[in-house]
Amino acid sequence: MHDDLLLKVRNLEKSDYSQLKLLMDKVYQDIGGAWSRHTINRLIEDLPEGQIVVIDHEKLVGVALTVKVDYTRFSNPHTYDDLIGHRETILNNVEGDALYGLDLLIDPDYRGYRLGRRLYEARKELCRQSNLKAILAGGRIPGYHKHASEMRASEYLQAVARREVYDPILTFQLSNDFQVKRLLHKYLPEDEKSQGYATLLEWNNFLYEPSDTVIESRKTQVRVGAVQWMMREVNSVEDVLQQVEYFIDALSSYQSDFAVFPEFFNAALMGLCPDQSQQVEAIRFLAGFTERFKTEMSQLAVSYNINVITGSLPLLEGDTLYNASYLCRRDGTIECQKKVHITPHERRDWVIQGGDKLQVFDTDAGKVGILICYDIEFPELGRMMAAEGLDIIFVPFWTDTKNGYLRVRHCAQARAIENECYVVICGSCGNLPAVENLDVQYAQSAVFSPSDFAFPHDAVMSETTANTEMMMFSDLDLDKLKLVRSEGSVNNLKDRRQDLYSISWRK
Predict the structure, then answer these.
(1) Which residues contact 252 (CB under 8 A, 6 or more apart)?
(2) Active-site pick, 125, 127, 202, 263
(3) At what angle are helices 290-303 and 237-253 packed, to 10 degrees?
(4) What is the pTM of this model?
(5) Tens digits of per-residue pLDDT, 328-370?
(6) What b/e string do you get for 123-146 counting C-beta neighbours within 10 Å, with b at 16 or more?
(7) How far is the C-alpha of 501 from the C-alpha of 497, rounded, in Å?
(8) Are 11 and 215 in contact (CB under 8 A)?
(9) Which helix (H) or strand (E) holds 309?
């Protein structure tokens, strides 16, 4: 695993060729290695937006090469040579109505982070925004040579589709919504592992979303997934982290852009503290796991390609204890937001201190902020974040009674209306009789919107069943926030009387 990831998806540049050649020679050593500099430069000149790379810091670790083709011609039998012109120039049809996936490769040292999926998703987004019919590709089947003596190539494809056989390329392509249209013969004769065969793969585009930019554009349709976590007795930190990965995996499978966890969701680990009678010692014992949770949840964010709001965790800095939440972006970067307002219970029984910073974070799915539980009950915080262009407020919470929960819920709904943003509240349920002051929880997680015609009549986008462990999904349209802010029935942000009053943060 890499401890210091900083991932970025961007378009390939001519200056990247030296790194690209090293990567292609490393991965394609069995079929001739890298394309020439001339070939790559021509690809970049012909279709710059179709040549996509993943960069870790300044290192090129993944690449997808693409051209435009005529759908009718290349959705029928063809060979790889049909794409190649004079001097190994790859033929890009400027009038083409489909994309053709030439190569997609990942540095072996970075496998396991699902970077190939990111490149496929970037290609799909290019296809949608360019209003093209489909993505076509001739896919190698490098696992076939192991089975060639016992089955025909067509039988091998069926076995892979039934998951009876694993093929490193075809299995991955099928998992990314590509359909096998036909078997291609003599597609790449020098490919001995595939015995010269390939699959003609197709992904159909059912959407059209025009945009001037593709890779750098911010999403306007955002899917949020929240975990209403069940508190239960655990035997180890591994038990909790295994459950965390289960939920992140499941949320990612539904293409969520965010995974949200509740406040102090790992509190069951306090039950492992040797001295349960001392609450201060128990919460500091729990803080001993925070660095591991932050690190491993960040790695899961990268691996499953989803931004993770880590709920909240006790953070010990020197001798001062805070209640902190982390935003673990899927590019490997991490941000921290400390709880500003501390409840009487936290202050009295756990000696937790309040943080002194309030931040709005840029993500690839909008501008977001985190207000932990009690913080949502203070309208000044939401208003200051809204002034910075906030789209979504995430509220990890823990409440033990229904009246405590309703304070969080009603205040969250107020923040959504007055700041014309979405608010996601996420809490835990169940019981922890072995942990002092955390023996029972009450939660009904939900997503709230502004209250106007573009949104549900009750301004509730989604909500869970109360006190039941489950996942909740909600699709948020960020463009609707722009609409309500400029043309809504009321304009809570524009109509502020700043000539009479203002809110500021004391430095």
Answers:
(1) 259, 304, 305, 306
(2) 263
(3) 30
(4) 0.79
(5) 999 999 999 999 999 999 999 999 999 999 999 999 999 999 9
(6) bbbbbbbbebbbbbbbbbbbbbee
(7) 6
(8) yes
(9) strand 307-309
- Note whether 334 and 328 are within 8 A (CB): yes
Q: Of 413, 412, 360, 418, which Cα lies nearest the Cα of 391?
A: 360
Exactly one of 68, 338, 339, 480 is catalytic; name it: 339
Spatial contact of 236 and 292, defined as CB atoms under 8 Å apart: no
The strand ranges marked E within 70-207 are 98-106, 134-139, 179-184, 198-204
Per residue in 385-419, pLDDT (tens digit) is: 999 999 999 999 999 999 999 999 999 999 999 99
373 is catalytic: yes
Structure tokens at 68: 């435009």
**pLDDT value of residue 136:** 94
Edge-to-edge strands, sheet with 59-69: 7-11, 52-56, 59-69, 98-106, 134-139, 198-204, 179-184
Q: Which tokens is 496 given?
A: 């502020």
Query: Which residue type is seen at 256?
Result: S
Rounded to 5 degrees, φ, ψ at 261 are -115, 160
Identified catalytic residue from 127, 328, 336, 373: 373
Nearest to 199 by CA among 210, 188, 215: 188
Amino acid code (one letter) for 138: G
Token pair 């900083």 is at which residue?
A: 6
Mean pLDDT across the stretch 24-33? Answer: 86
Q: Which of 20-24, 153-157, 291-295, 444-448 shows the lowest mean pLDDT across its residues?
A: 153-157
Alpha-carbon distance of 391 to 385, in angstroms, equals 9
**Residue 426 is a catalytic residue:** no
Which residues are CB-contacts of 233 (< 8 A; sequence separation ≥ 6)? 268, 271, 432, 434
